[in-house]
Amino acid sequence: MFKYRDLKKSHDIRNITQIITPRGILDPFEVPKKKILIVGNGFDIRAGIQSSFEDFILYIVYGCALFNYKKKQEIKISDEEIKNFFSEKDCPFQLKAHEISTDEILDKCNIFASSMMGELVLGNLFPNFYQYIYFQPPEPVYFYNGDDYDESINEEKMLIRYIYGLEQGGSFIDNPEYNFLFLPKELRNKGIKSFEYLIHSELKSLQHKCKLKLWLDIESIIELIVTQTPDLKEKYGTSYQIPKDQASTDSLLLGLNSFEILLATYLRFAEEHLEKESSSSSFFKKITDDYSDSLSKRSNFLIQRVDISDATTIINYNYTNVAEKIFKQKNPNIDIRYINGSLHVKDEVRLDEIDTNIVVGYSNLEEIKVTKEQYPFEKKSRRILKNTEFIDIDSVINKELFDLTIIGHSCGIADSDILKPLLSSDYLKSAVILCHTVEDLFSIFNNLKKMLDKEQFNLLFSHPANKLNKNLFFSVEKKGGCTNN
């Protein structure tokens, strides 16, 4: 995985401290045979799958739009017009994913959007759209025409029809309050084209303000709902107290279950439409080329290059089998663990009583007291409920010296049950985190600082010249290619 500088021939490192572990003294110059790789969503994105946080949220938004095109009286259009949405050459991928969606899937998009979790997620990303589309419209607005109230004019209905591209415009367009609804003339009254333009315009206008951008934010939103943590309240902008009675818990779980089912459905479509790499060797070579130079410099030339293709164990935080397909081209017997479930559960362990094996949740590291009804929101509990693959880190390490590489993962605190024991292990020689950008590096660094004890954190980043184990280094990608989870 790492090509180390030949330290035995080096004259600038003397008096190397012995590495003492529970199994005895290890050779400080030993290159580990065990190579553990953690992959997150950025790995899948790099491989060509459209599975970013934004991709999936847009899938839900388009699902809500189609639900309303079919169900809402003031928006309802014909099946033929809906079919025309998908026939366009430039139909968005996330909308195209709904071409085979059943009414049940569209219902689940609406259920999620109407849930407390949906309100926090979509209300952060699309505050204007959430107000005018996902909430129930207010009472009709009637206008006095001089003699009587004109009940035929409902500004709210006209506004919603305009957002959905079914109305040319109305008096409300001149109101500064609706500036966000500006549409170029050629895009007015164009159905999904109008809707798509307005959705992307709002996403773009809020991209530097919105604090909800990554998959780890979903875990934080769930934690906020359950624990009401003050700093999360401040970050995601909710001031109301979320009730903790059974009915509220059932409602929240309905939203979370809908989210997981929708995510599994979308990822299956995205996986089927994966832009395939020419070969696994070219995929691995690109990663080596993009990261080795930065890693060499940041490790003060201790590590000369990185090559993830020879990983012996993969802990896969993704739900797809993209990593499995790529690595098994090189090593058919590689050990791959799906920590949060998989889209491709073996029939012999598939559970009939659950809709999907994949897990979304949070980790209650601060042990904030919650009611027993709220236990199912925790990631560990959801893994048990979903019967995901159990990972015993001690058995993975197996008292062997190992190198650790992390790619495409944000190292969020919700995953500390795996990351913390690996990074604090006596058998860790070196760890490397491959980052898409310097901004990702800062974010991951801060996440690790929150996750690890002060002593563990300082040890990983002290890099003493006379001690060659427990070193953690970063590498920043030379060119664009993946984003972290």
TrEMBL record:
InterPro entries attached to this UniProt entry: AbiH
Superkingdom to which the source organism belongs: Bacteria
Name the UniProt record assigns to this protein: Uncharacterized protein
Native species: Succinivibrio faecicola
